[in-house]
Amino acid sequence: xxxxxxxxxxxxxxxxxxxxxxxxxxxxxxxxxxxxxxxxxxxxxxxxxxxxxxxxxxxxxxxxxxxxxxxxxxxxxxxxxxxxxxxxxxxxxxxxxxxxxxxxxxxxxxxxxxxxxxxxxxxxxxxxxxxxxxxxxxxxxxxxxxxxxxxxxxxxxxxxxxxxxxxxxxxxxxxxxxxxxxxxxxxxxxxxxxxxxxxxxxxxxxxxxxxxxxxxxxxxxxxxxxxxxxxxxxxxxxxxxxxxxxxxxxxxxxxxxxxxxxxxxxxxxxxxxxxxxxxxxxxxxxxxxxxxxxxxxxxxxxxxxxxxxxxxxxxxxxxxxxxxxxxxxxxxxxxxxxxxxxxxxxxxxxxxxxxxxxxxxxxxxxxxxxxxxxxxxxxxxxxxxxxxxxxxxxxxxxxxxxxxxxxxxxxxxxxxx
Length: 417
Hints:
Layout: H1 3-8, E1 29-32, H2 49-61, E2 66-68, H3 76-91, E3 97-103, H4 106-119, E4 124-130, H5 133-139, H6 143-159, E5 164-169, H7 176-188, E6 193-198, H8 205-222, E7 227-232, H9 239-249, E8 253-256, H10 270-279, H11 290-301, E9 318-319, H12 322-333, H13 337-340, E10 357-358, H14 366-374, H15 382-393, H16 401-416
Parallel strand pairs: 1-2, 1-8, 2-3, 3-4, 4-5, 5-6, 6-7, 7-8, 9-10
Helix pairs in contact: 2-3, 2-11, 3-4, 4-6, 6-7, 7-8, 8-9, 12-14, 14-15, 15-16
């Protein structure tokens, strides 16, 4: 039995158990909303320009294709930072393409013309307008009012050489007839992309497949090469599931923000989208710097990483449970890092520049104490292991490294006298 065959036999993957497992015809792409929708989070700070540029460089390193840099219509300070970020991308010859959010108003699109001229970049204007009946009723709009704004603004952008993604807010609660009229008009006016939005996090995976499939049929009927984006929020915690459903239904690009920050409960988390799409085999890229991206975003916007956040939270690859630790240690004793990274983990930590970690607490066993001591420069013996484990059993929490060092050093000092 070869090593490869042996490893394949160790995990029966029910995710791949049928012959009709979905795989997109081409790899999905990603639009990073951290510096636009992410900053609309009630808990987010507006980062310094230096921190914004650092995040752009990390996005570039991860192969993220596009990033929304903000709303030019929000004021001069925002326009200043957006232009500086565009110039940074241009000078660094980044592949990352900038886009900006614009209402379907000429006053929002006009600054994009100047930014394009000054940076030399093809900045995509993401022109958005509400589409659902509830929004129309609230605003006293008719569908003809909406179409009038769309035609005027998109024609203005097209005639001035500005590329456009047409964005319908609250698409997942909009009437099919309205969606068809808006999208056909936008496509006829030459938009590059259309974006389906689950603005209030209403959709289920079934609803996502339904609306993306419907929009896909509109694009196909037009005969134009127009790409479809999905922008989903996490109000019902269905964000990642909906992103997967969107790709399965024919979307080309997914929007997300670091740590899932954004309006209300937030957006789909860009970091976990990248991780899941790689685990699904839909993308193939180096994600070893994804942790740096998450930490930099957390620092920049002032939103802490939850301790139990998947992959990048402190607890993600940390165990104090005896049975779990014993299995990991046995795998390491076999000299098999691949095995140790998977025997009690559905996500291989090594893919993300991380490792499985073992500590000692009230649910630990002998393996925990021995492993921790060995990996922190101590030579385990029965008395030291018993002391560490006995102290842990009397505690109420998983010990930190500092607490374990204090226990080990205190015991060794006492034993030497």
